[in-house]
Amino acid sequence: MEGGSNTKGSGLSGLFGAGGAGYSHADLAGVPLTGMSPLSPYLNLDPRYLVQDADEFILPTGANKTRGRFELAFFTIGGCCMTGAAFGALNGLRLGLKETQNMAWSKPRNVQILNMVTRQGALWANTLGSLALLYSAFGVLIEKTRGAEDDLNTVAAGTLTGMLYKSTG
Q1: Residue 40 has what pLDDT?
Q2: In which band, very low, low, confident or very high, does the pLDDT at 1 lie, cut at 50, 70 and 90?
Q3: Could you report the per-residue pLDDT of 111-161, keeping only the tens digit for each?
């Protein structure tokens, strides 16, 4: 790079084909760039080529940009299972401390509390996960049957889930 000139084959810019301008950073220092596009000082490329006019993600032809009810079902079911497990563990801790309050702090008391925490956590996770599964299944079936995505599907799925859940009582 003598005299500030940059040949096509020198350095990494020649390897990647970006050395077409033929100017080094020293040659461009102090030159006003009015009317010209500024070159990136790091990559020696025109930043206009980096502007994205199209969408960021590639979608199949005819696909919508939002997630459908079936895709959201997995998030709903998993979220309800995790929420049920956390709520059940807290409820189990409360019940375990209440049932063993007359016992001294010992291994049997700790085991009873842990048993209550895991039992209640699993019970609540199973219950909420089952409800979420029913709600999601009804929602997907209603959406596919009606062919529309609106609030009526949500209300109908919730109603059918509640009716089926309470039908045993």
Answers
A1: 55
A2: very low
A3: 999 999 999 999 999 999 999 999 999 999 999 998 888 889 889 999 999
| Residue 57 included in any domain | no
Q: Provide the percentage of residues in the chain whose pLDDT is more than 70.
A: 60
Domain extent for 109: 86-130
Domain-located, residue 71: no
- Structural domain includes residue 52: no
- SS3 assignment for the chain: CHHHECCCCCHHHHHCCCCCCCECHHHHCCCCCCCCCCCCCCCCCCHHHHCCCCCCCCCCCCCCCCCCHHHHHHHHHHHHHHHHHHHHHHHHHHHHHHHCCCCCCCHHHHHHHHHHHHHHHHHHHHHHHHHHHHHHHHHHHHHHHHCCCCHHHHHHHHHHHHHHHHCCC
The structural domain count of the chain equals: 1
Q: Is residue 113 one of the residues assigned to a domain?
A: yes
